[in-house]
Fold this protein.
Amino acid sequence: MNDQWTDRLSEYVDGELASGERTALEAHLATCAECRATLEELRRVVARAKALEDRAPKADLWAGVAKRIGSGQVVDIRSRRRFSFSVPQLIAASIALILLSGSGMWLALRSRQTATRTPRPDAEWQVLNVSTRRTDAAIADLQEVFERNKSRLDTSTVRVVQQAFTTIDRAIAEARAALEADPGNAYLNLHLADTMRRKLELLRRVNAIAAAQS
Amino acid sequence: MRDQVIEDTLPADSIAADVALAASGDASAFERLYRTHVARVHSLVRRMLDADEADDLTQDVFVRAWEKLSTFRGESAFATWLHRLAVNVVLGRRKTLGVERGRFHGGEDPLEGVSGRRETPEMSMDFEDALARLPDGARQVFVLHDVEGYRHEEIARMLGVVPGTSKSQLHHARMALRRYLDR
Amino acid sequence: MLTMLTAAVLASLAPQQGETDTTIAVPAGASLSVNNFGGSIVVHAWPQNRVKIHAEHGSRGGIEASLAGNTLTLRAGSRHGAPSVVDFEITVPQDMGLTLSGTYTEIEVDGVRGPISAETVDGSIDVRGGSGIITLHSIQGSVTLADATGRIEVNSVNESVELSNISGQIKAETTNGDVSLMGIKSASVEATTINGEVEYEGTISDGGTYSFTSHNGDITVSVPEGANVTLSVATANGDIDASFPLPFTGTREKHRYTFKLGTGSARMEAESFQGDINLRRPAEMHMQHKDKDKDKHRNDNQDHEEP
């Protein structure tokens, strides 16, 4: 049902029609039972939407949240005093250093101030961009070689090797995603590069083994 | 707005106190906030995306809230702030999927062929199920407008469309959902 | 039977019985190379200048032996082109260098004092002893090394790597498995995995470099009291947990934190993308490790019961 009147009904329900259009629509509604029925249904949909009840998740998700914010719920009976920092705490809180009776400076957490953001070193990021492309190409090449030669390997070896590839690929994807959110970060840059290098090394090693099988 | 319901059932002081405590690193206070608001957040996430991702994303929302708690200045209700944060997390997730899909086109009806007509109640689908079946874009407009109360201008900005698209998608969503009212 | 082989003599030994037993005299300083395909290679040591070989290869198989210069080479013989499955049991002079390789081969070495290279595709490698250059590689198989000293490089791909009571330079790596280094005396350690945990219990020497990395596993490092070390700890999604005070010297960027203990002389990197970084005292690590061993041996016994 796509006529010009039906299409205006939602806006009418929301009070968004200009006065001229509204008058015309109301005049039409007076004569069209079908449109009146549709209007009524639309109103009920809106009311139903507003009445939707919130449902808590089936699983208790707090444990997962707690772990990530570092609430330290797990009590290790063996260690007496523990000094735990959750990374989000370190980031979000400002750091107050307290001198403690000669044994050096400790880390204590205070609230409110967010850490200042260091400016993103664009040049660094550009360099990484280029080098992962090169590594990507090298990986793709070696992958091709692997596909060509893997018939020389036993199926269980191939399976095991592919499991390892899957593990590394997943790690690469996670590292990439984190880096996209945080391009200037040196640790993330290095971690991605290291993980890609692992893939490269494994491919080389496996290709060498396959070649030796002939 | 719907957030007022939560704020009204608990003394405002206790929520404000928990927010202050949580902002200074008190995880038990944050857990109390979590318990109070998780149903709301989870439902929003579930309706905007899908049930599969809702658990993970709900956790993401709360972890982000913990990280950003120090930026909450208390000018609006905490529930409103948290709610907006949840919407942002959901929209951020959408962006990483990168696919512009899920709009109604022309006269199609995505729920066509799915039983839900009143004539066959034994195979019926309830309103929330039907909502989940809408194309992503239309569903999100519907959730943001009719469930969460955002206006078309805001929705258009959030989803990266023009307000006209938001309005027409809303209309189509409502028209499609008409059949599932009585479940 | 005492046999002396000279020059490039390729000999097939006792093909009919399914077993070969022979002892070969070797010059001092000789090394042994064993190439197997399927089966196992087990090497023990004795204080004699002879190599005793016991090989089980089935009636269709055999082994080939050749002595060229200073290297005795044993090979799984192949009949009609198909490589055979051989179980080698070899006793060698204590200082003999070993190069052992196989495809579906388990390798076990005990009591030697010389350099060792062991490589297999599908099979575990277990070595006790060794000195000098020690290289152990497996793809599908766990690798363990104990009581060794020297320049050590150990890796697996799909299983764990365990080193205990080792001194020297160490590089230990795997992809889908844990890396465990216990009782280490070293000033240069690198341990890395992608999907697994890393644990280290050993010295932290002044001027030493230590690197422990994982993608999604926890890193647990023991830091003795009085250690002088600059700790660079990085994790994108995990926690940092220490059993002792950690003097914080700053964070130059998100995810990475530096702590300085004592003079900060040694340099240590403990990094996990998603796992936690745990810093412990040696006594705690011993306790934790004992518990883990108990669990592991419980599981080992179950494995042996399977048909």
Q: What stands out?
A: Residues 70-110 of chain A form one domain. The radius of gyration of chain A is 31 Å. Strands of chain A lie at 83-86, 94-99, 105-110. Helices of chain A lie at 4-13, 19-31, 33-50, 62-69, 87-92, 122-149, 155-181, 186-212.
